[in-house]
Design brief:
The structure is a single chain. With about 625 residues, the chain is mainly alpha-helical. It has 26 helices and 6 strands. It has 4 domains: about 90 residues; about 170 residues, Intergrase catalytic core (hpI Integrase, Chain A, Orthogonal Bundle); about 110 residues, DNA polymerase, domain 1 (Orthogonal Bundle), CATH 1.10.150; about 170 residues, hpI Integrase, Chain A. Helix content is about 50%, strand content about 5%. The strands form 2 sheets. A 3-stranded antiparallel β-sheet has the order 1-2-3, with no helix packed on it. Strand 5 and strand 6 form a beta hairpin. It is extended. The termini are far apart. The N terminus is likely disordered.
């Protein structure tokens, strides 16, 4: 859909707004209400005198301040459109503040659907049939009775009826084609024969018309507006005593109130659904948002419950854990669709047996080149799901236990990679302390090593998690949502104090801000931290050739654990410092520390007390005896 030429934005961001709408229209979104919100934003930016192509945080917050007359739903809609536009600006390379959803108040809907009674319907249609033509609308006595009967008889939306064109109403076949309905869906609707006959009589009042002409036209040939139909509907209900009460002055409620009222033409869809049951609902329910007639499979029900209720609500696992399970189900559904020929919406629990799971694991190794460790991770996720299923579906217990019996594959375990003190010092010396980015990176790498934090723990750090007063420490939220406090060394404390003062993070109102942020003032990602470390490892290789290997953020964690062990710290203390659940995990450092092994061997390298054993080849008597056997 091309961009509406009537937009004509005037602010400095007008070109960006036009491109934004073009992208939305190309994706199939009508975006009518959002376009109106963008026009208001455009006017606001002109009033604010914005002269550069960016959306500063101060301007965005002022624009999104809730108005006194604004409902929570309208405020939320403004925030949503502004968030989408801000992200679009960031993709174009402009600076923009992405507002947070927490700016909006919670929108608790108290909507109660209104369904008209049989008596109200008779009164209403009697009032519609008694309409008289007016100078502004000379054909309304012909058009409106058929419009409202289509709304009731077919469950149409108001906009769908008003946009009907002559080619869409096949009076010979008795079929009405709804084009570009909600979610850009088309559908065919067969009205009842009495309604088709009424439409034929209505069409006979017009001479031969173009197929593109509006079927229910205004005097200028265009379609009626939604407001015209809503206002007339409300007037007729009040006239017959079926609608809401008028105000004390006797005037009709304002247009905004009539749009919010439950007694609107949309209630025809609910009345139609009530009167015609499932056969009636199937005429207008033609897209997923309004519910397909297809019954969900048991697999889809359990997967949804497992991800959204069991993992998120009952076990309260982290979002990253849920994403890991989600990725496994995505791969399984693609495998069933592309290899097994089973559509995702038709996959049932009974079809997921041992043979299918084993075929899926082989597919991961053969086609996707997954390593044994990745294969085991996918299998462990399926094991977790089927442990949940066997409790929910006892009849499937045997099937689940057969899948749970599939063993993990053995694989070689690589030795722990860690840095020597010289290599670590060379990497930490690379950031350019003359630039803000270099100073941030120097603090980041120092904190990553000094705390032995996992990379996700570093990503989640906020300014309020740091305590610089004695005893200086930092709070880390680790695996299993376990919080631990890690002490900070004096040098790291000084670096952090300078970093927080430079970025204005030392004030209480900033404690929820990320400790380390990117150029867009958002939290760094795990990929971003890997990129920062890799950049300085490459620079350090020229002076330290031994760094010609892969160094990841987790390598710094291993380095900290190894240095603690070399300093004589017990494994139990290292376990608590690194946040390991089991001491067996910490023992990898004792097994991998070559320097400690070498020292231990040197301590027992004194001359052996065992007597020298003579070579058996020199013992002639023994040789003769052996040959005689």
């Amino acid at each position: 859909m091309p961009a509406d030429s009537s937009n004509r934005f005037q602010s400095v961001l007008s070109a960006c707004m036009e491109k934004f709408l073009q992208e939305k229209h190309a994706c199939g979104y009508a975006y009518h209400e959002a376009t109106r919100i963008l026009r208001r934003l455009d006017d606001f930016l002109v009033q604010e005198g914005l002269t550069i192509q960016e959306l500063p945080g101060s301007v965005a917050r002022k624009w999104l301040a809730k108005k006194a007359h604004e409902s929570a739903g309208t405020h939320q809609q403004r925030i949503t459109v502004t968030r989408q536009f801000s992200r679009f600006l960031l993709r174009l390379g402009h600076s923009a503040c992405v507002p947070d959803f927490t700016l909006a108040t919670r929108n608790r809907s108290n909507f109660v659907p209104r369904m008209l009674t049989d008596g109200e319907l008779r009164n209403f249609f009697g009032a519609v049939d008694a309409l008289e033509p007016t100078a502004r609308s000379p054909l309304r006595h012909l058009i409106m009775p058929e419009v409202f009967r289509l709304l009731y008889g077919c469950g149409f939306r108001v906009g769908e009826v008003l946009k009907l064109r002559v080619r869409d109403v096949d009076l010979n076949q008795g079929i009405v084609t709804v084009r570009q309905g909600k979610f850009r869906k088309d559908r065919l609707v067969p009205p009842a024969l009495p309604l088709v006959n009424r439409l034929r009589k209505y069409a006979a009042h017009f001479e031969k018309r173009s197929p593109d002409a509006i079927f229910f036209p205004r005097p200028n040939g265009g379609p009626f507006s939604l407001r015209t139909v809503y206002t007339l509907f409300r007037q007729l209900l009040l006239q017959r005593g079926s609608g809401c009460q008028t105000s004390s002055s006797g005037d009709l409620p304002r247009a905004c109130e009539s749009f919010r009222d439950s007694a609107l033409p949309s209630s025809y869809r609910r009345t139609f659904s009530r009167d015609y049951g499932s056969s009636g609902r199937s005429l207008w329910r033609r897209h997923p948002a309004e519910g397909r007639a297809m019954k969900p499979t048991d697999f889809s029900v359990h997967v949804t419950s497992f991800l959204t209720h069991y993992l998120a609500a009952q076990r309260n696992v982290s979002p990253n854990t849920i994403k890991a399970y989600r990725d496994v189900f995505t791969l399984l559904l693609r495998f069933c669709r592309d290899v097994q020929g089973i559509a995702p919406e038709k996959l049932r629990l009974e079809q997921i047996d041992v043979s299918l799971v084993e075929a899926f694991l082989d597919y991961l190794e053969r086609e996707r080149k997954s390593s044994p460790r990745t294969r085991n991770q996918r299998l462990a996720a399926l094991h977790g799901f089927f442990r949940y299923v066997q409790a929910e579906e006892p009849t499937r217990m045997h099937q689940c236990q057969k899948i749970l019996a599939i063993p993990l594959r053995r694989h070689t375990r690589p030795t722990v990679s860690y840095l020597s003190k010289e290599e670590l010092a060379e990497i930490l010396a690379q950031p350019d302390l003359r630039t803000p980015e270099g100073r941030r990176d120097a603090v980041l790498l120092s904190v990553l090593y000094d705390t032995g934090a996992r990379v996700q723990e570093l990503v989640d750090l906020s300014a309020g998690d740091v305590r610089l007063d004695p005893p200086a420490q930092i709070r880390l939220l680790g695996k299993g949502r376990k919080m631990r406090a890690v002490p900070l060394m004096a040098n790291t404390v000084q670096l952090l104090r300078s970093h927080m003062q430079e970025n204005h993070l030392d004030h209480p109102e900033q404690f929820d801000k990320p400790l380390f942020h990117n150029a867009r003032h958002e939290r760094l990602t795990r990929s971003g931290i890997r990129y920062i470390l890799h950049k300085y490892v490459v620079l350090a290789r020229s002076k330290c050739p031994s760094l010609n290997r892969t160094v990841s953020p987790h390598t710094l964690r291993h380095t900290k654990g190894m240095h603690l062990l070399q300093s004589g710290v017990s494994l139990d203390m290292i376990r608590d410092f690194l946040g390991h659940v089991d001491a067996k995990t910490t023992q990898i450092y004792a097994r991998a520390n070559l320097e400690m092994k070498r020292n231990a061997l040197e301590k027992i390298s004194e001359p052996s007390l065992v007597q020298t054993i003579p070579c058996w080849q020199q013992n002639k008597g023994l040789l003769d005896w052996l040959h005689s056997l």
